[in-house]
Design brief:
Keywords: Heme, Iron, Metal-binding. This is Heme oxygenase (Biliverdin-producing). InterPro entries: Haem_Oase, Haem_Oase-like, Haem_Oase-like_multi-hlx. This protein is mostly helical. It has a single domain, classed as Up-down Bundle (Heme Oxygenase, Chain A). It contains 8 helices and no strands. The longest helix is centred in the middle third of the chain and has 30 residues.
Length: 229
């Protein structure tokens, strides 16, 4: 990802603009009761496994799209195997659910809608692919350590397994990697219409993810206690 950036001369402020104009949608997704319960240590291992299972179906589609987009002039530079999460999700699901995990998981209705959108736009629309890629992977890089710390305290696991999805062993310097990613956003040469399509699709992606989280929250009640009034 970082290899040829020194040769790029023209930079824009698109990464900052994208973050600012999608912040409300991002915060709305992060405010879901299921996320708050995760961070507060009120979700047990089976609940975390349920989240990983829904992620598995989404990442399977997104990483298939990444393979398609590798050769694309604009979207290709964003594709990095160091980001890919599918094998990590498989490892974690095996850890929590056992060797027969594939037969135990099903996509929820919200995840089906999310995956349908990924299939619709990520295989032949570079801007939309980048929008979903940005939403998922930069979110994972930014929030993964906080979530891992919360889960480590609440799950009481006897070893360090079950957190491959959140670990990113091949990215030891996350801030530097995220800076490089933002440089790609700033130097990709989008026109105004393309930038607006990305912003709109990122907002849509956050809404789709929020629906998945809401459905997880409903399925796991009453283990997620209601706040006292």
């Amino acid at each position: 990802m970082e290899g040829d950036m020194a040769e790029v001369q023209v930079r824009t402020g698109f990464a900052q603009r994208l973050r600012a104009l999608t912040r409300a949608a991002h915060e709305e997704a992060e405010s879901r009761p299921f996320v708050r319960a995760l961070l507060a240590g009120r979700v047990e291992a089976d609940g975390f496994a349920a989240l990983l299972a829904q992620h598995y179906f989404a990442y399977r589609v997104l990483e298939d799209a990444a393979d398609r987009m590798r050769s694309d002039l604009i979207a290709g530079p964003f594709v990095s195997d160091r980001l890919h999460r599918l094998s990590a999700l498989e490892s974690d699901l095996h850890y929590y659910l056992g060797p027969d995990w594939r037969g135990l998981i099903r996509p929820s209705a919200a995840t089906e809608v999310y995956c349908a959108r990924l299939r619709e736009v990520c295989f032949d629309r570079p801007e939309c692919f980048v929008a979903h890629h940005y939403t998922r992977y930069l979110g994972d890089l930014s929030g993964g350590q906080v979530l891992r710390a919360a889960l480590s305290r609440s799950l009481g696991l006897v070893d360090d397994g079950g957190f491959a999805f959140l670990t990113f062993e091949e990215i030891p310097n996350r801030p530097r990697f995220k800076d490089a990613y933002r440089t790609l956003l700033d130097t990709a040469g989008w026109d105004g219409a393309a930038e607006n399509r990305i912003i709109a699709e990122v907002r849509h992606a956050f809404a789709l993810n929020a629906a998945v989280l809401d459905e997880l929250g409903r399925r796991l009640v009453p283990p997620i206690p209601r706040p006292r009034r």
